[in-house]
């Protein structure tokens, strides 16, 4: 026990010394969870610091990400190559130890955490991915996908609704290899939690179908060991280990109190803590014996070597499965993917244009692509049919059968999105998930994290505007398009035709980052594409129809409003005007094109009217001369969709009249 | 029992006939919950249809708002003046019976519902308001604030995280007069719920500190009556009544199945349902005996008359309290409010400008205003001190003492915001609630509903930009400002000085609609206001500093970036340029000014540089000539705030250089 305590104290002192040096940071969590982390990392976690991307490693997520020094200390001590200098650079510019753990910045960090509750939900997504891939790829005697996902959570995580959503679904889906550890220290930023958090967490998680191991002393290595042992034996339930801990454990004057949560201890208290815990080493010095005990490289190498041997045998016996698993975990699309897309494009260009709901066009191309991209795992927040996320190729994943490719997330948009992040971060799967556009609001911060991490996730949002009609303003998005497009590193598609929908899905499946595909519930316009349009769509915006020569007026639309500008153009052409029609299905992508291309499409300086049944704010950036934006800047009403368009004055007549202002 | 069933069947047939006529809508919920609603409304609910705004009425919220025909049937039958024609106009333009219940459209609808889970959370806010006002105003023998809040929830509501957040806090705060009824019908849109929702809901709510009445037959009036009786006796816990129901009860071929959830039954099935339930009346006909039994006006009048008598006696004994309660429930600010604001403005204008964090400036004016506006109830999602939502005038509300004026919501941004909506809709209180700007994402749909309803709520968001620094990109908002400003009917302030902060709070406290106040964590610039600025701030934007005459260049900033444009202006003036500085603390308000005023401030056509440490998208609408927007269009980094400004190239030098492009 005393040896173990010394190992744990290495975390404590790396943490307090680093936070003291940075003069900002959160020491309390790392000090409080050090004993738990020590047991987990030294006795249970199967990972190989020399290869942080080994696909069968156990995943570790610290959902209470503000306590990032816990993660950084663990990575340093166990051999991930994070140096003492890296630790000293905590919270400094371009360091490998930023304020919160960030995916892609630090080897061994499995997902970005900090926004509370989401690390937990993301971990649940990883566990779902593991279970799905295990069922798909494992064969008798070849458990090639077989790992645990461990997640540490604090009080804050458990207060957030997103954690409830994920916990409920994880329980329902029996994600037994998800093991959560609750850092029950009764302290959050406002002080002692009982005034605002009186849940019986153990009982709550039992009610959600979890295996709960309650009342574990989070500072007793034996009790912690027993808990992890029991957790790993769970065959049909995820496990929640509730650990009683003392925040800031070891600080004689500050432990157990809020002040140790988010501020340095102070030089004197650091000294007292050294004395109190009998740590006789200088700042940043960890004795060799302790470093050696922590070093996870030798056993990590052995673990991966064993797995490599297993995989070699698997490869011999199941060469196609092995090749497929290798391809998918490497994140490579199938070799024939471009050919499949090309043949879809040919099919669409050859067919007579038909009047059809845009969500239906999206559904058709998605269904046709899915057959050749088996790593795609769909799902929806209880609106599988109305979003048409459900394709002919879809089969439900159920609590007892993960062979399907479609997750019924229930009415849990935020949980869905965070779990999709977990699946994407896990690897081997490309998740898409659907809900109504207006309820993207519920999940917005998970979509943001997806963009921040650059994960390949696809958010399918239908019911995209006032066209939703009778369900009224609660269900009619208007500000959501600009809000989503404003997220850095986001790629938002709002297709208006089957060809545009095809490119949207193609792009989303290829892009190393998240995409949003917004597909109207109502009919799109009927118009024929030229084959050259394909390239233009792939650049985000293009000339859909042109009078030739210098246009008198440019009309720009997206998605369901293409029909309106087609109508308006006919009227204006009847008046002898040279009209150019532009479709910009992806403003993010179009804005990233060079100025010459943008100019060639928009003919800057020409009078221009942008039309979209949404907040006009997004389009002013492209208005570099006379013109206006026709959009929706108030809440909708409950009535049939076409009536709402009239009430909102979003009509061809209005467009003609606005255009008229700028035409002599 | 048969009589009661006939009363309930009136709801069922109004619903199926209306939905059939509208050929769209959701019959299942109303049919399934009709028996429960009948018992509640006829035997328990204390309300007066002749005065839907009677302040001591019981509140009724249907959180599963898609089943709105239940609410509309109840309002029609009990005497709220909703006519058969109104019902027939369900989901038609400008009707009083829109697709989802909407606050302000239909008398008797207490809050807009439809976005699942939020009706429940909003109801919890109403119950909190009741408890707070009761403690403040009731005196021995005078329970002038004394009512229940009833809320109906479906599976969807309980899957949403926001419901968990509110349930957890309601349990913690012992909101014993909140009574929820769970419509446990095992059906959601994707089909039978056990595949995605396996919670033991009764056990879960017990774990959250609720009084749970489980296994109630939702079609047995006696069982339902017993449950409500027991619920109303709870002295220290909110109550969850779990009712087993059959969705679409009475439809012989469709009940208990998903298809009855969101589509008309069809003419034939409607006829079969009539036969099955023995309902011999034509469509839209409810026999007089049934109508009379439902009519709640006589007993409603008596109930209000009794209360009026009580209040008259209270007025005699406690005239000041009575006057105060009357003022506050009428939504009138204190008579001296303008004088208090004026004296604050005087204080600020007289003082030497000081360097101070903008959140601190906000905190000071708020604290000074609070003394004269006792109806303000603050709170924060576990960041009371760092947002400085906590003022010198703040006292905590605790589970056992509601005399305070500050709610510790815990780490529950969405639940907080929805509960604030409930408090505002309840009346008698003006809620403000604080969190970090980036986490407004978590609560976004509640903020939207606040705007849709036009509620007087105030969302205080600090840590407003890359200036947050070391906590890194997860904590550095950039797209949130444009996303919030894009919500229709929103008023977003981003003050840059104490005077601007004062006007922000003044405006927020006066406005009949929600406001967002965004206050930077870091220091604002040091500059002196002229007294005339007050008027300009109240118009959302104004000339802060001017060279006189026609400017060569206009620099526009908000909040923490005013310092940058002041610096840049000094450089440009040194180069002999005539520089105008404009501050637009509230772009929503400024955009609503007439064109002449906007022109007088922005001098349209003059080269202009807008500067804000956020997504630039919002500002292009005001750029009507040469110029640019200097903003942040990528994720931030973890480092001290000033360094991030440099890394993001958001500096005075950059502004000077951008301006130079447009100057000859």
Structure description:
Chains A, B: Its EC number is 2.2.1.1. Chains A, B: Pfam families: Transket_pyr, Transketolase_C_1, Transketolase_N. Chains A, B: Residues 356-526 form the Transketolase-like pyrimidine-binding domain. The structure is a homodimer of 664-residue chains. By secondary structure, chain A is α/β, with parallel strands linked by helices. The first copy, chain A, has 3 domains: 3-301, Rossmann fold (3-Layer(aba) Sandwich), CATH 3.40.50.970; 337-519, Thiamin diphosphate (ThDP)-binding fold, Pyr/PP domains (Rossmann fold, 3-Layer(aba) Sandwich); 540-660, Rossmann fold, CATH 3.40.50.920. In chain A, the strands form 4 sheets. Chain A has a 6-stranded parallel sheet with strand order 9-8-10-11-13-12, sandwiched between helices. In chain A, helix 21 crosses helix 25. Chain A is elongated. Chains A and B meet through helix 6, helix 7, helix 8, helix 17 and helix 18 of A and helix 6, helix 7, helix 8, helix 17 and helix 18 of B.
Task: Write a brief structural summary.
Chain A is α/β, with parallel strands linked by helices and 664 residues long.
Features of this protein?
homodimer, 664 residues, alpha/beta, Rossmann fold, 3 domains, 18 strands, metal-binding (chains A, B), calcium (chains A, B), magnesium (chains A, B), metal ion binding (chains A, B)
Rg of chain A to the nearest angstrom? Answer: 27 Å
Say what the CATH topology of the largest domain in chain A is.
Answer: Rossmann fold
The oligomeric status of these chains comes to: homodimer
CATH architecture of the largest domain in chain A: 3-Layer(aba) Sandwich
Q: Supply the CATH class of the largest domain in chain A.
A: Alpha Beta
Strand order of the largest sheet of chain A: 9-8-10-11-13-12
> What is the first-to-last residue Cα distance of chain A?
88 Å
Strand content of chain A is 5-15%
What low-confidence regions of chain A span 5 or more consecutive residues with pLDDT below 50?
A: none
- Overall form of chain A: elongated
Site (Important for catalytic activity) (chains A, B): 26, 261
Keywords (chains A, B): Calcium, Magnesium, Metal-binding, Thiamine pyrophosphate, Transferase
Protein name (chains A, B): Transketolase
Catalytic activity (chains A, B): D-sedoheptulose 7-phosphate + D-glyceraldehyde 3-phosphate = aldehydo-D-ribose 5-phosphate + D-xylulose 5-phosphate
């Amino acid at each position: 026990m005393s040896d173990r305590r010394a190992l744990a104290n290495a975390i404590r002192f790396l943490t307090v010394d680093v936070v003291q040096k940075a003069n900002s940071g959160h020491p309390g969590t790392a000090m409080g969870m050090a004993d738990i982390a020590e047991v987990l990392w030294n006795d249970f976690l199967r990972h190989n610091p020399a290869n942080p991307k080994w696909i069968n490693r156990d995943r570790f997520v610290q959902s209470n990400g503000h306590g990032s020094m816990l993660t950084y200390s663990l990575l340093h001590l166990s051999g991930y190559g994070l140096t003492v200098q890296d630790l000293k650079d905590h919270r400094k510019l371009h360091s490998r130890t930023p304020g919160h753990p960030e995916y892609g910045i630090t080897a061994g960090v499995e997902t970005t955490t900090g926004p509370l509750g989401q690390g937990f939900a993301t971990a649940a997504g990883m566990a779902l991915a593991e279970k799905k891939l295990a069922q798909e790829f494992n064969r008798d005697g070849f458990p090639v996908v077989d790992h645990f996902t461990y997640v540490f959570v604090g009080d804050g995580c458990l207060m957030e609704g997103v954690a409830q959503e994920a916990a409920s679904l994880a329980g329902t889906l029996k994600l037994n290899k998800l093991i959560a550890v609750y850092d029950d220290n009764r302290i959050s930023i406002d002080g002692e939690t009982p005034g605002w958090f009186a849940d019986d967490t153990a009982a709550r998680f039992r009610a959600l179908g979890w295996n709960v191991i309650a009342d574990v002393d989070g500072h007793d290595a034996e009790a912690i060991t027993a808990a992890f042992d029991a957790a790993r034996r769970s065959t049909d339930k995820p496990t929640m280990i509730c650990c009683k801990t003392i925040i800031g454990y070891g600080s004689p004057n500050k432990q157990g109190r809020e002040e140790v949560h988010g501020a340095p201890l102070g030089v004197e208290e650091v000294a007292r803590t050294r004395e109190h815990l009998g740590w006789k080493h200088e700042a940043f010095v960890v004795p060799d014996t302790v470093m050696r005990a922590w070093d996870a490289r030798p056993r990590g190498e052995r673990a991966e070597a064993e797995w490599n041997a297993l995989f070699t045998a698997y490869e011999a016996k199941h060469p196609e499965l092995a090749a497929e698993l290798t391809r998918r975990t490497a994140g490579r699309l199938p070799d024939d993917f471009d050919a499949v897309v090309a043949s879809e494009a040919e099919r669409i260009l050859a067919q007579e244009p038909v009047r059809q709901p845009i969500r239906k066009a999206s559904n058709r191309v998605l269904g046709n692509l899915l057959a050749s991209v088996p790593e795609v795992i769909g799902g929806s927040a209880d609106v599988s049919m109305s979003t048409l996320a459900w394709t002919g190729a879809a089969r439900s994943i159920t609590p007892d059968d993960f062979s399907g490719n479609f997750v019924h997330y229930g009415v849990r948009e935020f949980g869905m999105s965070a779990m999709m992040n977990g699946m994407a971060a896990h690897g081997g799967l490309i998740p898409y998930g659907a809900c109504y556009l207006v309820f993207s609001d519920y999940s917005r911060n998970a979509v943001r994290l997806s963009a921040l991490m650059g994960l390949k996730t696809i958010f399918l949002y239908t019911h995209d505007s006032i066209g939703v009609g009778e369900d009224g303003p609660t269900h009619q998005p208007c500000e959501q398009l600009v809000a989503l497009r404003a997220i850095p590193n986001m790629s938002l598609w709002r297709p208006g035709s089957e060809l545009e929908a095809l490119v949207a899905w193609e792009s989303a499946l290829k892009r190393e980052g998240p995409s949003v595909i917004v597909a109207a519930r109502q009919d799109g316009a009927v118009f024929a594409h030229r084959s050259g349009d394909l390239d233009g769509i792939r650049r985000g915006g293009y000339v859909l129809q042109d009078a030739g020569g210098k246009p008198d007026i440019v009309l720009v639309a997206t998605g369901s409003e293409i029909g309106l500008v087609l109508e308006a153009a006919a009227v204006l052409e009847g008046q002898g005007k040279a009209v150019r029609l532009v479709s910009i299905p992806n403003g993010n992508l179009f804005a990233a094109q060079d100025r010459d291309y943008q100019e060639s499409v928009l003919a800057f300086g020409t009078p221009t009217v942008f039309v979209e049944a949404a907040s006009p704010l997004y389009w002013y950036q492209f208005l570099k001369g006379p013109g206006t934006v026709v959009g929706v800047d108030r809440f909708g009403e409950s009535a049939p969709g076409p009536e709402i368009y009239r009430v909102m004055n979003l009509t061809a007549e209005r467009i003609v009249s606005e255009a008229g202002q700028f035409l002599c």
